[in-house]
Amino acid sequence: MSPFCWWSQVALKIMNLSSDHCNISDWLRLEATVKASVYVVAFFFATFVTVVIITIVLQNSKLRKEVRHILLCHHLLCISSYCGLGVVFQGMRALLANSPVLVCWVVFGVQLSVGEGILFTLALMAVNTYLAVCWPLKSLSLVDSVKYRILAASWIIIIFKNVCLFLIESANPPRVAVFKSEPLCPVILNGPPARAVGMVFLFFLLSIILISYFLIYREGKRAGHFNRSNIKAKKTVLIHLVQMSLHVIPILIFIGLGKMCGVFFFALNLVLFGVFAFAQCLNPLIYGLWNRELQSGLYHWMCCQLWCGHIMNDREPV
Q1: I need a surface site. Which of 13, 57, 101, 227 has the fewest CB within 10 A?
Q2: The pTM is what?
Q3: What is the CATH classification number for the domain harbouring 152?
Q4: Where are the bilayer-spanning segments (predicted)?
Q5: Are 29 and 93 in contact (CB under 8 A)?
């Protein structure tokens, strides 16, 4: 089916829904269809860039040992996993898979945890950059010795928080309802306690990122780096802030609006989701290929692939 025909069918469904009474299930299924399609594109793009960058890092012993590249690879794996889980969950909703409620909750809960891992890794990357810029001699050995413990601790915090919220929300319905199959997969961690904790968690990590970038900017301005040889660092900070706004603003509006019927709210929801998905696709490029060392590694990797391809073509019998 061509993209034009697919979008025509979506537009026809929207007109049919808008003429009928407000049925939130129909709107959610249509929304899931569009989101699943966007997630498929984002998943393949993010996975391709992730595989390329991780291959470059693994082939270079120097890059393998640096904390910033370890965090970058972890960040990219989280993005690919998040998009892949989005394909699964939204696909189950769009196809009316009639899955057990518990399965839907687990898939959505894991996706939400991986999404929080993305933001947590961004906070760790910002702190690591601040320490490297402002405390280059003292922080190197300290960060190198605790890098894996900090990553493990961050995942323990995320999993423990979400498991506790999961137990709180799953205690409300009876146990039989948890194993009951639902055509349209319900979400979990959507109640007032989960929303409040999620907002606190979001603003806490966001404040760490903003404070780190502010301190980096102030140190660079004080030392004169931004005025002489390191103007690119100032652009990097600004680009990262714009990237963060593309992540955070749609999430805040999502939480504030909730789920409503109507063409306007459907279009607004998809626009916000499109901005969010666009930011996810930009993450590997901004945090990965913006790096000079990775740019050089990508150039050598592409040359190697082309050279190997020419050799294989020359060996083929005529």
Answers
A1: 227
A2: 0.81
A3: 1.20.1070.10
A4: 36-58, 70-92, 118-137, 149-168, 196-216, 237-257, 263-290
A5: yes
